[in-house]
Amino acid sequence: MDKPILVLNAGSSSIKLTLFAPDLRRMLTGVADGIGGASLLRLGDTRAEVAMPDHAHALDRILDALAAQGVTLDALGAVGHRVVHGGAVLTAPARITPEIRAAIAECIPLAPLHNPHNLAAIDAVGDRAPGVPQVAAFDTGFHASNPDLATHYALPRAMAEAGLRRYGFHGLSYAALVRTLPAATGASLPRRVLACHLGNGASLCAIEDGRSVATTMGYSPLEGLSMGTRCGSIDANLALRLASEHGIEATRRLLNHGAGLAGLSGVSGDMRRLEADGGPASRFAIDHFCYWAARHAGSMVVAMGGCDAVVFTGGIGENSATVRAGIARWLEWLGVALDPARNAAHGPRLHPGSARVAAWVIPADEEREIARAVATLAA
Ligand code: ADP
Question: Which residues are catalytic?
Answer without folding.
Answer: 139
